[in-house]
Amino acid sequence: MIMTNQTVISSFILRGLPILPEHQPLFYALLLSMYLTTIMGNLIIIILILLDSHLHTPMYFFLSNLSFSDFCFSSVTMPKLLQNLQSQDPAISYVGCLTQMYFFMFFANMENFLLVAMAYDRYVAICSPLHYTSIMSPRLCVCMVALSWVFNMLYSMLHTLLVARLSFCQDNMIQHFFCETSVLLKLACSDIFINELVIFILGGPIVVIPFLLICVSYVQIVCSILKFSSARIIHKVFSTCGSHLSVVSLFYGTVIGVYLCPSTNKSTVKETVMAMMYTVVTPMMNPFIYSLRNRDMKEALIRVLCKKKICL
Predict the structure, then answer these.
(1) What angle do CA 208, 212, 217 make, to 5 degrees?
(2) What is the rounded CA–CA span in Å between residue 41 and residue 44?
């Protein structure tokens, strides 16, 4: 810390996970295996989509972006957490903390927007199958993803700059395993009214509106398939949407558990556990959901492996 007229924070201390010291080696091994599984699972999906021409469709274009987002989202928090568990050095620099906060918001919201794009893709495919190719053109898909990137870059930068203008005094202990906006605001010793106002105006809608759009898409899908009396068609539709619904439930379920149903006591255990769910478990489970429940992904894996054997 640098002492002038007031104490200025040059670094923060991440309290990490609420686990006993003797259990840290076990948790380190568990978290490392989960992180490596996340990296490998999402990389496999990206590579399969790139290599197999059968997967060059709007749905898998969005899925490849979702996998890349999960890959990066997990990498924002996990390496530092693993380093802290191994080295017992919980310090993170002021700049490193703001950088982590920026990329955490960026990739969290990116996943939010990509889930909406995937829901819209399923809506068009089921409710307007004859016009699917013309509506879900490559140009529209690229524009949807590009706009999501630009919007989230600006949104995350806005929050980061607003936090950067705050003063942090003597208390530099972060009761979490990563730098989160709400946690940093609690440590600020200057006025945070503007920060809270921006969170209220933009933070809620950026989660609620995409969730409502996904719900509307699936209501339309359900209404559309109820017109069919064929059980085979209904089963095919639900099997097609099942993976996406599972990911949506996992993502929004944990987010709602953290931000809309906060703990009533002063313990941060619940918040930490729920944060682990959407920062570690969700990015790890997404590849399994899409590979185990998706016939196209299984067939693509077989084709790629067969081509590799032929080449060898």
Answers:
(1) 150
(2) 5
| pLDDT score of 265 | 47
Given a contact cutoff of 8 angstroms between Cβ atoms, the answer to whether 167 and 141 are in contact is no
Amino acid residing at 235: H
Determine the 3-state secondary structure of 293 from DSSP.
Answer: coil
CB–CB of 34/79 below 8 Å?
A: no
Residue of 254, 79, 271 lying closest to 182 (CA atoms)? 271
Indicate whether this model's pTM tops 0.85. yes
Strand, coil or helix: 171: coil
Q: Which amino acid is at 74?
A: S
CA end-to-end span of the chain = 59
Amino acid at 150: V
Give the span between the Cα atoms of 152 and 133, in whole angstroms.
28
Task: Supply the pLDDT for residue 3.
Answer: 37
Residue type, 7: T
* Least confident span in 54-63, 265-274, 277-286: 265-274
58-87 helix and 282-292 helix, angle to the nearest 10 degrees: 140
| Residue pLDDT, tens place only, 119-162 | 999 999 988 889 999 999 999 999 999 999 999 999 999 999 99
Beta 91-93 vs 11-14: how paired, if at all? antiparallel
pLDDT band at 1; cut points 50, 70, 90: very low
Token pair belonging to 304: 């790629």
d(CA 275, CA 277): 5
Which residues make Cβ contacts (< 8 Å) with residue 238, sequence separation at least 6? 225
